[in-house]
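Apologies for my clumsy wording, but can you show me some protein sequence, whichever is easiest, together with the matching structure tokens, please?
=====
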Amino acid sequence: MAARKKKRKPLLLSHTRPLSSQKRGSLSSQVTRSLIRHHHTLQKNLHSALVKSDGATVEHIRTQLAASGGLQKYQEASIQGQSSERGGDSSKVLMEWVKDSLSESTHQGLVSHRKPRMLEVGALKVDNACSRSGMFDVTRIDLHSQHSDIRTQDFMEMSLPASDTIEKDGFDFVSLSLVVNYVGNAVERGEMLKRVSSFLRLGEHDEARTLSPSLFLVLPAPCVTNSRYMDEERLESIMIALGYAKTRRKVSKKLVYYLWRYKGTSLGKTQDASFKKQEIRSGANRNNFSIILQQ
């Protein structure tokens, strides 16, 4: 019975996200992971079909996406995966790093003085660790928001801060938590990473801002531990070329977390051949995740 319910065509997306206090069935961790993986696979196949202008396959995949619940079901699975009882809030790692870099007195000063600005791309919740801390002025965006405090916005189409207003309109932190891997094309992933620095403000930073301006990047661990085209060395080379230095790193069984501080100048050549799609691991069981930078 449960399997049939999952295959029903979903209702239209609501303009608000279901609150945790609302009654709804909770998915098991295994089902949640399966839904997320299936959705990512369909999105990847859809992008490939679009590139090939294969109309029949595009229509078939879109029908599959609708039958499996589409974006709404994916978001619900992602939200449950981030629930505190499942330890899935990736922003807790960022908070640990920020707190570790501050003395207690500096922390108190940060809360009462000007707060660092954070842009959270692909936001699903408004009560994650960073939001609850009160330490940040958070701007949240998502492709299809289901909460009034999350703006519906495509990061790749978001207006860039003007050079003369970057200190006012820019951000100290940009969070891409499980966002880059959602992008179906390796070139577009590279363009997304390149775009981040345009939103970061350099300026003068006191002791409380020793980690900023930074990009908080979270990926599924297999993207760098089991990819045919990507490993941590390749990722770091790409980030160095974009002007970043790695300041924090954490690897778990499922996820990899990084904090990349932006230095303001490119430290490498983005046209280098090492940033094209190039096999660095062989094996039939590898995934094909990659990031391509183009000049």
Summary: The beta strands are 117-121, 137-142, 151-152, 173-177, 214-220, 244-251, 255-262. Residues 29-51 form the longest helix (23 residues). Residues 95 and 130 are 6 Å apart (CA to CA). Residues 5-25, 77-87, 269-273 have pLDDT under 50 and may be disordered.
